[in-house]
Write a structure and sequence with these properties.
Chains A, B: Keywords: DNA-binding, Transcription, Transcription regulation. 2 copies of one chain form a homodimer. With 239 residues, chain A is α+β, with helices and mostly antiparallel strands. Chain A contains 7 helices and 11 strands. The structure holds a DNA duplex (19 and 19 nucleotides).
Chain lengths: 239, 239
Amino acid sequence: MIELPNKSPLYLQVRDQIVAGIAAGDWPVGDALPSEFELAQKLGVSQGTVRKGLDALVAEGVLIRRQGIGTFIADAPDAWGSAELLDTYGVALTTVIELLACSRVHASDEVAAALGLRRGIQVYSIKRLIRVGADAFGVEEICVPSDQFEGLDARRIKQAGGNPRGVFLKQFGLRLLEGTPRLRTVLAEREVARLLQLEVDFPLLESIRVAQTLDGRKIEWSRLLCRTDRYAYRPNCDA
Amino acid sequence: MIELPNKSPLYLQVRDQIVAGIAAGDWPVGDALPSEFELAQKLGVSQGTVRKGLDALVAEGVLIRRQGIGTFIADAPDAWGSAELLDTYGVALTTVIELLACSRVHASDEVAAALGLRRGIQVYSIKRLIRVGADAFGVEEICVPSDQFEGLDARRIKQAGGNPRGVFLKQFGLRLLEGTPRLRTVLAEREVARLLQLEVDFPLLESIRVAQTLDGRKIEWSRLLCRTDRYAYRPNCDA
DNA sequence: GAGTGGTCTAGACCACAAA
DNA sequence: TTGTGGTCTAGACCACTCA
């Protein structure tokens, strides 16, 4: 291990080295890391210390361990995938996501405040429709600062299966960790009502989350508006 | 360690031994466990293994470690305490809880189904009002099977500072772990509207959670109904 | 100084998956 | 059979708290 006058425990330094390696693209998504013993030798620590360092990243969903095989870089799960949708009897339902638009707009005051940006700065706004069967369940808007994701567009997102997180990770090298949602009930405005085929003022559930990078920069704001008359929403917040 | 033909790793067996010890009341709330080395000797394993066994319980909030001092049995946090309440600008607010009632009733079908009980069996129903300042923010109902908590009443809950979880733990030896909430928007019915000083059909946020014991028995159903026009609710689900 | 949690090592062995 | 993750040990030292 490179010996800096660093007070933090060795295993955290190991963690940071791995994070740096991932950010530098040493191991693309799906690749295996060197084995725990190799890493230990390379970093000059014992296998147990490497293991403890990797534990945190496994817990954060960045790495996936497979016994007998290796430790792999995890793919970026869809933000919506971190939630569950249940019918009125508690049975989980599967959803389909439809990309509606990806455009460059001025950040609303709310988004700018949540991400610590200057008011009115440019952000990419990604809108998606979430369906369960033929039913429109909710609409989601994702905002990210445009200067960090130059050239983001609908085509790229569609190529990644409609998953913006996949693009953020593979094209821009940024992995995001979900924050805890802020929940409110709101009444449907015109555009949302139209998309969900509901009347205006239909009561909806609003879930707002801010996601951050591995090193703690808040970088993605998202809002889900969904109907909960036929379904229940379970957010699965770990963060 | 008592050698049963047990396939599970030693550190999980250690965890289970500690859980059993806690359930048996070996160490009341606030007490220190024996030191890691003492436990290691007593159970015939190494300190590292004991440590790993305790890690899980610390993560679950059952134990609290204090460096240089010892490892302690954690108190039962109030169920409501696992959530946060924010104003419209994201600033956290403090709440006051008022116990409304504790009564013995027949379980609704919904509660019975969620807890795996026979329909119509008796449960204790605890109702509480959550205030922020002078404002009524929400009402909460907690249901637990009456046969597990014989003699529960408002007096006992008040003695524990209005925290039912404290009573469950200290009087009945049961520690509960919070589950992930199921969320819906609902319209206020008459009684709830009256308690919250809102008109009937005011849109509210409903959060339903099931909590379980350390060994996985679902034992507590709770429903929070709250207004989110002035506040945002952040559930903090770990489970 | 004594006792606690917290970290680290070197080496061992097991469980599992693949060639 | 080989290489991987997964567990465990014995012993060492550090960091912190308290008497």
